[in-house]
Structure prediction request, 269 residues.
Amino acid sequence: MDVIEKTQANFTAKYNDFVKGKPAAEVAAATLGGGAQGGVMGFLFGKLGSIQPPPGSGPPPPTMGMMQGGPWLMARNFACLTGVTQGLTVAIKQYRNGVEDWKGSACASFGGGAAYSLSSNLGAPKGVPLIPGGPLPATTPGAMAMDAVRTGLAFAVLQSAFYYIGEQFTGGASKPEEDVQYRAVTDMLRVLGLEQYDKNFRKGKLTDSTLMLLTESTLQEIKIPPGPRLLILNHTAQAKAHVTRLQKEGKQPVVGSLSLAMPIEIIHQ
Prediction:
């Protein structure tokens, strides 16, 4: 068991080193990994769907009918579903600076459901329903697009419901680990009434440890307007003065949430 755990740990470490700082590589790896898992799962479902009931036992149950289409066809469809879902999940998380919630999950599920629908319709035999007794697969581009949207919405709604139920059992949504690095940033912006610029700091990766190093040019780079820039620089300057005063008094300052979240008054010169 130790050998397996060490192998997994080594693989995880090498994977993290490979994708570190490479957003496109991380998305590609997630897509390929999700597609491989879905392909295996679809192949197994296709094998189960090919099992015929004994003679005289009646038509196959609905669950078996839904898995009809052959192992390789099901493998392709499920690979599209899980691959696109996993890839979009990682891409959306990157775009939102590590935020994970039901919105991102629903968007990723919509994309996966739409991909599954397109793959199913494109590979389906013409004139043969995907499920015995069900509707014929879409053949025209417009019909396939509409079916992809309907399927995507159905997947998004289901995933949102699962996400909500999961939150109820776990006591609410857990904050991303990255949020811990922005506590002082969030507190400072809240004190100054500039909460709308929180996303600018996150996009620029300006965490708590960088606040004492902020300059006007840095704030310009993350597109903070002149007025808010002055307020932020004034706040950090006073925080530095507060830390310096504590050091002169022989006290150990807490550089982070405690020092920067203080409601420091603005100095009028």
In short: The chain has eleven helices and no strands. Confidence is low (pLDDT under 50) at residues 255-259, 261-269.
